[in-house]
Amino acid sequence: MKIGELSKKSGCSIQTIRFYEKQDLLEACNRSEGNYRIYDASSLRTLQFIKQCRSLGLTIIEIKQLLDTKNNPDKSCSSVNNLIHQHMVDVTHRIAELQELKLTLSEMASACTDNRKVKECGVLQLLEE
Amino acid sequence: MKIGELSKKSGCSIQTIRFYEKQDLLEACNRSEGNYRIYDASSLRTLQFIKQCRSLGLTIIEIKQLLDTKNNPDKSCSSVNNLIHQHMVDVTHRIAELQELKLTLSEMASACTDNRKVKECGVLQLLEE
DNA sequence: GTTGACTCTATACTTGGTATAGACTTTACA
DNA sequence: TGTAAAGTCTATACCAAGTATAGAGTCAAC
């Protein structure tokens, strides 16, 4: 199949597919006589794997490591498990940060609920501190 | 004061200060004979305001709007309040997304708690789906 | 007078794509 | 068979919010 079809089947944009190829996530595929990229079902599977990983927030470098690990079926999978675990720790940490931020924002919002003049605005006053 | 002192007092790096100037957040300051930037207490206050806004996650464009609004003390402050409110909505939304993600990651992590071979790894199997 | 600390500008790099321009290939239809 | 439309190609620039560097100039102390 050509890149347009792969794009539709995978839900990744054409530019993104070419971008992944340039980043060595997706290996260079065969070309038609007119130099069009020709993909097969295995490219689609890899692309779906990449998309799944991206939706979990894994970076391109991490995905590259996962793809590399997948190519060594007899090695230990501990690096995979560690990656997911560490990522979960990071996400947990980020959630805590955002909850803190939300609290600050809500305190700030309640400092000026009515419509005042700029010089009397409670929000701006808090921002000055 | 020169940029190094402003950097220490504000906690912003020297490059960041120059970057804010280029972005028109911090207005171009006076220069010494040797072309060094010379700042005063008002520059420091503005920089602290910017830093406070950035710590809340406001973008440079939004901060520019806030600084602009601050310069019109008699206008209505509703745009300020709306900005903070909308930002809080966005943060709330982002927290929900990350909590969803955390759940997925924790399910994934529990699919392979022991150390197996890559081809038997429960995490990788989930990632394939 | 020279060393070291400080500052200057300009430029490149980061992440994960997205958006062009300009050229080429292929397909559809009259 | 000709041509128009759709698809694809490469290369390049752009986004946000800085960070890092090179190479040059300035300033203060010894």
How would you portray this structure in words?
Chain A is mostly helical and 129 residues long. Chain A is built from 6 helices and 2 strands. The first copy, chain A, has 2 domains: 74 residues, Orthogonal Bundle (Multidrug-efflux Transporter Regulator, Chain: A, Domain 2); 54 residues. In chain A, 64% of the residues lie in helices and 3% in strands. In chain A, strand 1 and strand 2 form a beta hairpin. Chain A binds a DNA duplex (30 and 30 nucleotides) through helix 2.
In a few lines, what is going on in this structure?
2 copies of one chain form a homodimer. With 129 residues, chain A is mainly alpha-helical.
Features:
homodimer; 129 residues; mainly alpha; Multidrug-efflux Transporter Regulator, Chain: A, Domain 2; 2 domains; 6 helices; 3% strand; elongated; DNA-binding
SSE layout:
The structure is a homodimer of 129-residue chains.
Chain A: H1 3-10, H2 14-22, E1 30-31, E2 37-38, H3 41-55, H4 60-70, H5 78-109, H6 122-128
Antiparallel strand pairs in A: 1-2
The first copy, chain A, binds a DNA duplex (30 and 30 nucleotides) through helix 2.
